[in-house]
Amino acid sequence: MKSALSRRGFMGLTSAMALGGVASSAGLHSSRALAAPQTASGLLYGPAPGVAKLNANENPYGPSQSAIAAMAEASAMGAYYIGDALTRLRSMISERFDIPASQVSFSSGSSGVLTYLALAKAREGKILGPDLFWDTTTRAALRQGGELVRIAPTSDLGLDLDALYGAITSDISMVQICNPNNPTGMVLDPVKLREFCIKASKKCTVLVDEAYNEITDNPAANSMVPLILQGHDVVVARTFSKLYGLAGMRVGYMLASEENTAKVARFSLGDYALNQAGVAAAVASFDDTAFLTYSKERILEARELITSTALANGLSVAPSQTSFVYVNLGSLNAESFRAEMARQNVLIRGIYQDYTGWSRVSCGRLEDVQQYAAAMPRVLEALNA
What we know:
This protein has 15 helices and 14 strands. 47% of the residues are buried. It has a seven-stranded mixed β-sheet, with helices on both faces. It has a three-stranded antiparallel β-sheet with strand order 11-12-14. The chain is of the alpha/beta class.
């Protein structure tokens, strides 16, 4: 049943593109805009024609038309450093989350603020996290002598919050959680996570990376932002790179107490890390409900197709609430699977750490996911030969 639904969605998209585009918040996205064409400058932005790019968790339906218009206007004033637009964006975020504007920090994508906080907390003690999570931003701290302590996952690759709490010793300065998790795509029970954050934050800072929050079934319930205003030592990171479709424009932010905001500021470049066009796009996208709804629907449809394809080929997946799926290849090697898929012009991720049998696939354009689905039987046959 899932497979049939996904195919209908794919055919619907194909038909819409044949008629000249797919609906967006401010008109139509033409098929040309979605195909990353060769430009007059000779540069290629995005994947080459015929290549299914499913390896970076981007939203290929962005930017929205409102964001594109805002970027064009801002780019014409690119001679000037960022100013009024960032003030506007900070005010919008402050109002939405009911948090003081002075407690909103920005960076080039959320990678910046995540790294700055890791650098600050690594000077106070060790950082604690799951064995499998998006730990790229902690590596700068590790290169400078910091230490990351990991706990083993549950048998289904989940996070045992009780075990995580039990691992908080006196030398732990911060616990880092990615919710939903990357690369597993799994989301934690919000009630249990809230209880953990309240309890754990009495011992150390708790950082929750919510890069994919807007894609979950219940974003408000899954967010830990309210705990900041309640006075708990909790920090939340967000980004415009995922659902908002602005990965290349590099805008992210962090919500924290005044104290933690000051710690982040010690390592950041402040407003100089941002650009006029990216911030203008973020302002235009922030309340673009029609575009966000459309994007989420397409992402969920692609996710369903990836899942049904894996199941139809005898594989299993981790339950995802993100814009990607973690596929269990069983005894097959994920790097070999990635390489073989690349030969089919399908780009996916390879091995994470030593989880050799798991393969992460992004929810890209539906026709690209269809290309992945068509290639899978051939790739599995080649690897099992």
